[in-house]
Every structure is written in structure tokens, then in C-alpha cells.
Specification:
Blueprint: E1 3-7, E2 10-18, E3 21-28, E4 36-38, E5 42-50, E6 53-57, E7 60-64, E8 69-72, E9 78-81, E10 88-96, E11 105-108
Length: 115
């Protein structure tokens, strides 16, 4: 059974995890966003499958639509949000030597989860 974890912004489901990679579906509720964050030990690749994603990656801000994708290099500040009226869903592929949830440095967070 896939592992689903509820978060203040929506939820994620782990579809596959093996040595060196993990594949998730992220669902972001309308009006919600994840923390501005970075990872020391992994890169991420996002593919939008539903809705419109508001993306911060490094010093760039952009929107991605269904079928568009973005690579986030290891150590790069990034944020995912959904300013639209419908659910946002994307596939996230994590690549690295450690893929634990504790490899998140939150720089800003709407839910007071920064250190």
C-alpha cells in the first residue's frame, strides 16, 4: 500500500522508494503552499499533472502548467504553491544518497514549522 501523509498544505503519497530515489505524488490545496526550503542531500524533479504550480527556485519565480517540469538542484532554495481555484497535483522524483523527511531546512513557513 502506498504511504500517504497529510500536511497543512495538502498531502503526499510515496509511490516508490529505492536506493538513490523516491517518487511521490504531491497534492496542494487551493491557496496553500509549502515552506521555502532546501535539501542538503537530494535534488528534486517536479512534473505538474493537474492544476497550475507557483514555483520559487533559487532567485526565479514562475508558474508551471500540466505537463511542464522543473529540476531543482541539491541545496537550492525552493517553494511550491497553489494560488489557483483547483487542486494542484505533481509528481516529485527525489534523487540523492539520503531521502529522509528530516533533510529539510525550512527558511520560511506559513505553518510555523521553521527552527
Amino acid at each position: 500500500m502506498p504511504e500517504t501523509d497529510e500536511r497543512p498544505w495538502g498531502r503526499y503519497t510515496v509511490l516508490e522508494e529505492r536506493s538513490g530515489f523516491k517518487v511521490k505524488v504531491l497534492e496542494v490545496e487551493p491557496g496553500a503552499r509549502l515552506s521555502l526550503q532546501r535539501h542538503a542531500r537530494r535534488a528534486e524533479h517536479w512534473v505538474v499533472v493537474q492544476g497550475v504550480a507557483d514555483i520559487v527556485c533559487g532567485d526565479q519565480t514562475r508558474q508551471l502548467h500540466q505537463g511542464e517540469h522543473l529540476h531543482i538542484p541539491q541545496g537550492t532554495n525552493h517553494r511550491l504553491g497553489n494560488s489557483g481555484p483547483a487542486l494542484l497535483a505533481l509528481i516529485e522524483v527525489q534523487l540523492g544518497d539520503y531521502l529522509g523527511e528530516d533533510d529539510i531546512v525550512r527558511l520560511e513557513d506559513d505553518y510555523q514549522r521553521t527552527a
